Amino acid sequence: MSGPDAAARERVAELRATIADANRRYYVEDAPTLTDAEYDALFRELVELEAAHPELATPDSPTRRVGGAPAPGGRFGEVRHTVPMLSLDNAFSADELRAFDGRVRKGLGLGPAAAPTLWGEADAGEGPAPEAPRYVAELKIDGLAISLRYERGLLVQGATRGDGTTGEDVTANLRTIAAIPQRLAEPLTLEVRGEVYMPKAEFARINAEREEEGLPLYANPRNCGAGSLRQLDPAVTASRRLSAWCYILLEEGPDGRPVVTRQSDALARLAALGFPVEPNRRAGLTVDEVIAFTEAWREPRHELAYETDGVVVKVDDLDAQRRLGMVSRAPRWAIAYKFPPEQVETVVEEIVAYVGRTGSLTPVAHLRPVKVAGSTVARATLHNLDEVRRKDVRAGDTVILHKAGDVIPEVVRVLPDRRPADAVEFRMPETCPECGTGVVRDEGAVRHYCPNGACPARIREALAHFVSRAGMDLEGAGTVVLAQLLARGLVRTRGDLFRLTVEQLEGLDRFARKSAENLAAAIERGRTRPLSRILFALGIPQVGEQTAIDLASWLATTWPPADAEPMGGADGWLARIAGELAALSAERYEAVPGVGPVVGAAIARFFTEPATAGVLPDLVAAGVAPERPAPRPAGGDAGPLAGKTLVVTGSLAGFDRRAAEEAIRAAGGKAAGSVSRKTDYLVAGEGAGSKLATATELGVPVLDEEGFRRLLAGEAP
Could you say which of 226, 346, 364, 695 has the lowest number of CB atoms within 10 Å? Predict the structure, then answer.
């Protein structure tokens, strides 16, 4: 082949190889070779080439990381595992680990254990004694088990564990996880098993966003990660920034025999093939050395970027594993040691209400400092007044504290018999503690908030959200820097950040010329971001990352930019959009997928209230311009729920709130936030409250989860 097509094909192959190598070095080896800007430029070039040459698009392209089409029919396909995916029995003490070792010895026909040895003392290069089984100890990742099947080096299928025999086909979602290779360097056919997990920082980010929006919080990274992987829309999974560790290799050589003979060798081969393998493992251990390993990680585990709740212990020799076999659904050759849950006692010294970027007042317990899960904790959010009342937390109380998901300090319960006689119930302030404006509580809502858009606390927190990594990503503009900029009057609006000069930045405390130049460069890079990132960074109440993506696509479809039209400037597309937004009613925003009356009203209010109406024009004037947005593709109104409006309330066993709403949209329906006479169905789970009462009063049909699933499948509910 010759000509432009040949050149495009060659460049696409080169870009894919470079991006795949960059992903491996960043996510697997923790040794990045490209800057974020360089990576983004290569990625955008690949997207543009594939758009111009659709015949070059392939399932293993890195561009698939952003998510493909939602799962058809509102459900995942089934995958039958060629080899069952087993669960593990648990051990909770050193004695139980020794009992496991005894069972292994008996199963292999070996003698009883000798006296305990010290860690590292057992062998000096001559190999283990026959009567001493050797183990591999791997940190146990608290995530969702997956299998990955590769044919000729290409990822062709990914599935969840399910019941161990049959799992769900989540291939499209697994493709969005950058740590998982789409194509191997060798054309191998094999199966890999591992764990998808949510990093602690991502869990904290999502919960902070949900709390600010008044949404229920996720309990821990494991549940949040599992729900994220099982989203029907891969784009939602892509937005959650999941990662993975791999630990089982099923690979046969030409003779039909396993390529490796030891679990430790399998881990080394997985790493060599480019799979992410948890680095904190040890092989060749006696049971006493395994016990020492568990003790050594009891405290340091809290410093890891991901959650681990124990240690998986496996017989290293794979032939010995096969001889030991399994009992029920658990192998005899492996066991999971669980770290004991860490809870501590401390005292609530006071409860203080803090004002967030949307004006929400959040009660926070100031605690007598105490060490828990590897760090000293002095504060714990109590979320809202209803939660304070439910747990009956008062200043002076002795409480049990832990870290939810090893991340977020949480008051578990009060010890009422330790309560002092003068303890007084917490009351939410009647006026904002920052600006004195009267505090408002919406009828039927748990949120108290300051309605003053010019409140100093709201401005401070809004700017912090704006510059954050998930927002405009202005690296170096942290809370300390923002506090100085606000105190000196250098910044009053978001647009002012883009008017700062190197000389002004150099005048900040502890800022040298180089620091000022670095921050100025980060601000300059931030002038061009995707429209969805800009909208999310604005901190519009009720608008999270996914709604910002939906809103940006809708805007680009409703008012598409002309090819020659500049994105920024007074005559550019962003300026035109800013003018359109200011004139839209709340009802008009309900045309955006997933936006109901509550969210629509919040968006309309943001773009018309005096304190925020000028945000976009101010950014335009400061030189901010979005990357050219892509309109939402046509044809989204097909599906079994086409033309139907559904509302979800309560807790469903198989869906979190967002997953249920994504399933509705994937089936062609509209997911609304409140019940009205226009609602076709209410999906009511456990704990359904006022929405169920409203639906009953209005005669709106109510579905349980089974009826909801039948409706998604196109059947009568």
Answer: 364
β-sheet bridge partners, residue 626: 529
Q: How far from 129 is each of 120, 137, 320, CA to CA, in Å?
A: 15, 19, 15
pLDDT confidence of residue 5: 76
What is the Cα–Cα distance from 100 to 106, expressed in whole angstroms? 10
H/E stretch holding 599: helix 597-606
The number of angstroms, rounded, from the C-alpha of 665 to the middle of its chain's C-alpha atoms is 21
Residues 6+ apart with CB under 8 A from 514: none
pLDDT at 17: 83
Using only the alpha carbons of the chain, give its radius of gyration: 28
Polymer length of the chain:
717
- CB 169, CB 79: distance < 8 Å: yes
Dist. CA 641–CA 73, nearest whole Å: 10
Distances (CA, A) of 343 to 222, 304, 403: 19, 19, 8
Mean pLDDT over each residue of the chain, to the nearest integer: 84
> 474-525, superfamily in CATH?
5' to 3' exonuclease, C-terminal subdomain (1.10.150.20)
Q: How far apart are CA 160 and CA 148, in angstroms?
A: 9
- List C-alpha distances in Å: 664 to 18, 583, 683: 38, 29, 11
The sign of the CA dihedral 182, 185, 188, 191 is negative
CATH 2.40.50.140 is held by the domain 344-428: yes
Q: Quick check: 2 pLDDT over 70?
A: no
Which amino acid, 239? S
The distance between the two most distant Cα atoms of the chain, rounded to a whole number of Å, is: 87
Domain ranges of the chain: 4-57, 136-338, 344-428, 474-525, 530-627, 645-712
- DSSP per residue over 36-76, as a string? HHHHHHHHHHHHHHHHH-GGG--TT-GGGGG--SPPGGGSP
Q: How far is CA 73 from the centre of its chain?
A: 25
Contact between residue 162 and residue 349 where contact means Cβ atoms under 8 Å apart: no
| Nearest partner of 578 among 614, 541, 527, judged by Cα | 614
The one catalytic residue among 140, 314, 403, 691: 140
Superfamily of domain 136-338: DNA ligase/mRNA capping enzyme (3.30.470.30)
Is 140 in the active site?
A: yes
Share of the chain above pLDDT 70, in %: 87
Residues in contact with 58: Cβ distance below 8 Å, sequence separation at least 6, in sequence order: none
Q: What is the CATH number of domain 4-57?
A: 1.10.287.610
pLDDT value at residue 656: 65
Q: What is the pLDDT of residue 328?
A: 58
Is the model more confident about 292 or about 710?
292
pLDDT of 125 higher than 70: no
CATH class of 530-627: mainly alpha
Distances (CA, A) of 165 to 80, 81, 197, 247, 329: 6, 6, 21, 19, 10
In this predicted model, what pLDDT tens digit does every residue of 468-494 receive, in sequence order? 877 898 988 888 899 899 989 999 999
Cα separation, 700 vs 396, whole angstroms? 48
pTM of the model: 0.51
Same fold, 344-428 and 530-627: no
Question: Is residue 353 very low, low, confident or very high in pLDDT (cuts 50, 70, 90)?
Answer: very high
Q: What is the pLDDT of residue 479?
A: 85
pLDDT of residue 33: 67
Euclidean distance between CA atoms 602 and 542, whole angstroms: 7
pLDDT band at residue 70 under the 50/70/90 scheme: very low
Q: Which of 46-50, 238-242, 572-576 has the highest mean pLDDT?
A: 572-576
Angstrom distance (rounded) from CA 142 to CA 35: 31
Give CA–CA dist 442/660, Å, rounded: 25
